[in-house]
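Dataset card, provenance and construction

Sequences and ligand SMILES were collected as paired inputs. For each pair, a complete structure of the chain with the small molecule in place was predicted and serialized as structure tokens. The example below shows a pair involving zinc ion. Curators did not alter the output after generation; any descriptive sentences attached to a record were derived from the structure itself.
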Amino acid sequence: MPEGDTIARLAASLDDRAVGRNVQSMVVRHPRLATLDLTGETLVRTSSHGKHLFLHFSDGTALHIHLLMQGRVMFGRAWDTEEWRRRFEIRFDDGTEVIGIDIPLLHHIDSDATGEFTSHLGPDLCGQLDLDLAHDRVLSAGDMHLSAALLDQRHLAGFGNIYAVEVPFICGISPYAPVDEIVGLDTLLAIGAALIRTNALRGPQNTTGRKLHLGDTWMLDTKRRDCPLCGSDIEKRPGKATPWRRRTAWCTQCQADANRCVDVERVTKLLGMHPARHLLALGETTSFVGDNAPLEI
Ligand SMILES: [Zn+2]
């Protein structure tokens, strides 16, 4: 699923493969942008904030792309994808082709107008990260459920459902816990930031530290019925059954409703194999000790 780490990696790939190249041809299959043609312009840079991606061109304009749940951007011809699903196709003068498939949100804007789409967002988890501000923003959600607060991009830009399920599990907190009752919310956010930033640098999305080259999760996208840590039943709910409209899973025992305190011993155990631990000072008061500067992938 495209989350902040996916977008950061995509921006880095575009930097490597297409920035500095001239557009040789371009097709856009979008009702509002059907006549858009940037042929002859140069892709001068990319930028991203959370799940928003911008391609900046030499004419002072930019393409704004948001993949939501279903979109993807790939390099190559994509002949096996129906033409109508290829919302844009850009061919550069060195033969590189960038194809946007099933892109739900696409805008053509002035390059300096990106704030129109990002000014309401919280700190970028894969960019310049201010964890104190992130903590204040999440805490301002009051009694909002933890997973809902993590998914709300006004608090933090970049988390999607993988982190909204996995971070509560790693910390031993129910996804339904009200955020203003969580003891160690700053620790929980530091852990989430370390995970997503590590995955942005390494890819693919992984929360266990196992099968790092393939991606792996403790709770989401597994057929497991019992908790990998304590063996108790895992409760699963589809998106239509959660207030935040995304499917979730949690351990009925070690994420019991009464748990309100981040369990640092548990975190140390669960992140024991994950390279994200290198961005954390794991201890009684776990903190983020990684580089808060924008990631250079
Ligand atoms: Zn458990």
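Derived descriptions for this record:
Helices lie at 4-17, 115-118, 131-139, 146-151, 161-171, 185-202, 264-270.
The chain has two domains: 4-118, 131-288.
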